[in-house]
Design a protein that fits this description.
Helices cover 42% and strands 22% of the residues.
Length: 257
């Protein structure tokens, strides 16, 4: 395997965190998409308990907080993101109802049937889509909602190059109907699913990385792992532009029954 084809999980977490902490978002998405996903969710009020899992520095959480009343707990494994998250909270004066906590998504600090809404943008893949849907369900009240975005295939068939890339990076990638079926099997009514528009990748995810890559390479000059990591990010970006008809991010919204 040459360096360009390494998948992200083969790189040092510290490097990855340093790189992504210079970006407002750590995954594809946009404020419009967060608001659209929220539009399918009913019964959220100032008493609601909401969790945003794999929140990163909180790009989407701040949007969520501005459009959903209630108490929001952001969870992320990495303290660097939670520090940035809590700083973002204070900047917006949301500290009375939004708080970031360092914890792993496979060890969530909630009580059974406590939550009204579980949110997770571009992060459930860390535990796996099916496992996350199944394990997180117990924290939701009956009638509570889950809203997650996840990489998915748009077609039954695809070019070998992109098929192989994703089989290595995330073998659980699947088609939209299969993901919806998994959601239903895990005990949710599949309320909605929609494809994130391309600008969630181009404008909101890849464009800000161009400058972040420059800064990161200057800062880590002489560090081979850093150079390799950026080459890998650039390769992933090129693949996106080449194969974006075949895959992208999809929001899946479910209601616990
Ligand atoms: N939701 C954010 C970040 C997505 S990137 C956004 O859309 O911008 C995925 C996030 O999952 C990263 O912040 C990463 O630190 C976090 N993560 C990875 N493994 C995790 C785990 N086991 N538990 C909690 N968070 C995790």
């Amino acid at each position: 395997m040459n360096d360009e084809n390494k998948s992200i999980h083969e790189f040092d977490f510290e490097l990855i965190c340093e790189y992504f902490s210079n970006l407002e978002r750590q995954g594809p998405g946009s404020p419009e998409v967060t608001i659209k996903a929220l539009s399918f969710i009913e019964n959220i009020n100032d008493k609601s308990l909401i969790a945003d899992i794999g929140c990163g520095s909180g790009g989407q959480t701040m949007v969520l907080a501005q459009h959903a009343l209630g108490n929001i707990t952001g969870i992320d494994l990495f303290p660097i993101f939670i520090d940035l998250f809590n700083r973002n909270v204070e900047k917006r004066n949301l500290q009375d109802r939004v708080k970031g906590i360092v914890e792993s998504m496979d060890n969530l600090p909630f009580r059974a049937e406590e939550l009204d809404l579980m949110w997770s943008e571009g992060a459930i893949y860390n535990i796996g889509f099916e496992r996350g849907l199944n394990e997180w369900r117990k924290f939701l009240k009956t009638g509570g909602y889950i809203a997650v975005s996840e990489v998915s295939w748009f077609t039954e068939e695809r070019a070998a190059e992109i098929g192989e890339f994703w089989m290595d990076a995330y073998p659980e990638i699947d088609t939209i109907p299969n993901k919806v079926a998994q959601m239903q099997k895990a005990g949710y009514i599949p309320v909605a699913s929609f494809i994130l528009p391309e600008n969630c990748w181009t404008e909101h995810f890849y464009a800000p990385q161009v400058n972040a890559q420059k800064v990161f390479l200057e800062k880590n000059a002489g560090n081979n792992a850093a150079v390799e990591f950026i080459a890998n990010q650039r390769h992933e970006t090129q693949l996106y532009y080449k194969y974006k008809e075949y895959y992208g991010y999809v929001f899946y919204i479910g209601k616990k029954i």
